[in-house]
């Protein structure tokens, strides 16, 4: 197959990547100020990548508030977006690194530094893919815009700001996940239900909303009765005399039906013993079901499967009851309608629904030109016929129209994102450059 990437491109890409990796662009809220909302180091990485883009012949723009920047080439109505981010997660325990995380080196064919895989390496690979097309005198029938976010690893304030202030892309991809590509990802809705408290029982169980709780502790007056009920239901627990711990199986909330929720098991036993309406919501209505079926009815679609509903935290004090829930909503389901059904049901148990966080779903139909072109390019270069993914971790793609996550990690690439000694194999990077160049050529070349 024809390749646009020369050895010069490969060499220069590595040189430029090193410059970017040397900037320790970790969020620093303490260093937040005018023009550098996420700290001076983060905006320095943004400045550095825009400077590189200028040198390569792109027109650039930097958000005066310092949230994002972009670099553009080509002409036309259509705006093709490549969604990157310049912030990185902290180095973590530096003693676990064999080299300094922000002093990039090439070792045994790998470039080693924080950000080499996530997401500076893939960003540079995509950038040089377009540079190679420019060098081959390819003209574009659209504008290609690299959008550089700077707060991806935490709250996505950068991309929210972009979407608030800037032109929406027509379609595009985020080089921030895995090949072949992710074309559907459920919406993520996190919420709390609150209601009155009780002095009958005290409870504080579960924790992070995106995890199925594997333990739930209880101690209280009616402990013996609760134990009896747990035994009747056949629920495992450890008995520490004055206290019991109901045992479950932890798993990521997106796979909630495959876990065992210790908290709902405890709630089932408790609602047999105590007469307290908010508790019945979990103990009598939800029970062990983690697909939301008992609350909102069976909810699924062909593109992305079934709704998941993970009840992750439960707090009962004399003042209030508070239940935390994480839902992954199939891509074609209307979130507001679903939330209303959920809220109405909760109200029957004297609970008030309150939205906490919402991340849009991602869905670009398999038969779309974008997905088909990206997929066939990947397959032509690799021979890997793996099916496209319907869940691959959240990327900026879900904040934009018709965007998917496309690479940059191959199925057999060791996943070192967020790990000590993060590194990316240069051969892998060069191959990604070729795939991106060809894909962009097929999609945007005249
Ligand atoms: Zn990333």
Layout of strands and helices, then pairs:
Elements: H1 7-21, H2 40-56, E1 59-62, E2 68-74, E3 79-85, E4 105-107, E5 110-112, H3 120-135, E6 143-149, H4 157-165, E7 171-174, E8 177-178, E9 184-185, E10 187-196, E11 203-206, E12 215-218, H5 223-233, E13 237-239, E14 244-247, H6 262-273, H7 277-286, H8 293-296, E15 300-301, E16 305-306, E17 308-316, E18 320-329, H9 335-347, E19 352-359, E20 362-363, H10 369-382, E21 403-405, E22 408-409, E23 423-425, H11 426-444
Parallel strand pairs: 3-6, 3-7, 7-21, 8-22
Antiparallel strand pairs: 1-2, 2-6, 4-5, 5-23, 9-20, 10-18, 10-19, 11-17, 12-14, 13-14, 15-16, 17-18
Helix pairs in contact: 1-2, 1-3, 3-11, 5-6, 6-7, 10-11
Bound molecules: zinc ion.
Zinc ion binds near residues 85, 118, 119 and 176.
